[in-house]
Sequence to fold (453 residues):
Amino acid sequence: MGKGVWPFVMAGLGLALLAWGSTWGLAFAPREAYMGEVQRIMYVHVPTAWNAMLVLTFAFACALVSLLRGGWRWDARLEAAIEAGVVLSGLVCIQGSIWARPTWGVWWDWDPRLTTTAVLLFAFGGILALRQFVDDPVKRAVWSSVAVVIAYVDVPLVYFSVRWWNSLHQLQSTPETVSRAFHWPLRINAFGVLFLLIGLVELRARLAFLRREAESAPPPPVRVAEALGGVR
Amino acid sequence: MSQFVAALRKDLLLQWRTRSQLVAVFVFGASALLLFSFAIGPNAAALREFAGGFLWLALLLASTLALADSFESEMAQHALEGLLLLPADPRALYYGKAVANLLQLTLLGAALVPVMVVLYDAGTARVPALLGIIVLGAAGLSAPGTLYAAMTAQVRARNTLLPLLLFPLVVPALLGAVKATSLLILGDPMGQLGAWTMLLVAFDAIYWSLCGLVFERVVED
Fold:
């Protein structure tokens, strides 16, 4: 088995875990007493939310390394992580709305977690747009790293300001404690999403790296890369 | 320090010489305030209640125009590149530009207050406090705004990109400024003004230091 295969194995393993956890959650886990069947969306929603935060944190780490040390590999990982983070945040908002409608009676609630996720979705979506519009690869790498660092620092500020703001109207509680019967499908799916995410981010990063190499094809990229202190 | 003073002087001079631009941005903000009232309808009580939010939305929309303009002249004939080759300290250039933008936005905000008072009947006796909140809120907009304007001035579709990057980022500053302004207008029975002011101060402190640190990387070649 070659070195290039592991992301596929990872993603496959993630999909298998997701199928297992979701089947368990949908068919075998007990019905939740108050919310009924709707609650079963938790088995994808909560793992998605955890992994969204995780991959955005990874993007922040990539941005820091890219700013401090440089190297196209980290820029490629940054691009992959931002994209995955935007997709997962979008999914979290959609799943949250689907769950909120029958439970709270509204599509949207100004819950701090929900609102922070939406703000993150727009902030990182904007950074993806920025990457699209900058033609110079060096500027693209530096600017998007700077923007990611700045946006990530904003996360706690947004969270606490929204919580403060919202507490003046109402405080919406979500069950912090999950009973034992619901544990296992949740855990399995959390790892399922994580493995799928790792596989897909790695594949996407490879694609970004190859694209950049193709972009700078006419002059041999070696000297540019050397000047930037990257690429092994 | 002397470089910062020189940069600030240059930016203030630039703004003074293009003051007709500032008037145009003010008219834009004032007409936004006028339009917001049509969204609510002629309901005096509701208009007064939302006056603080409308003031800050008008200022936010107007600020994207002012911020984008502030780097327009730096890109013409590679002026910024020339300054960096002098060599001028990029940090001095950033803080000069950011402080000039802060002053401009404060002026703009202060000028929009009478319009708000007239249109929404939303006066307050605590004018110095309101002015303080406008300074803090304008600082929250201008620190990241100046940094992002430096990026977006160099790319295609700059008019779309600046608000796209800036709006989600300034949510905490906007929330703090709106709440503090509303409390000043509508009264503050629970004594929450201090907490929102602290949020604004924290936001300003973080972004005034962080953006100054990374600006060098944004403009380097």
Q: What stands out?
A: The CA atoms of residues 64 and 145 of chain A lie 7 Å apart. Chain A has a mean pLDDT of 84. The radius of gyration of chain A is 20 Å. The helical segments of chain A are 6-28, 42-68, 72-104, 112-133, 137-167, 180-215, 222-228.
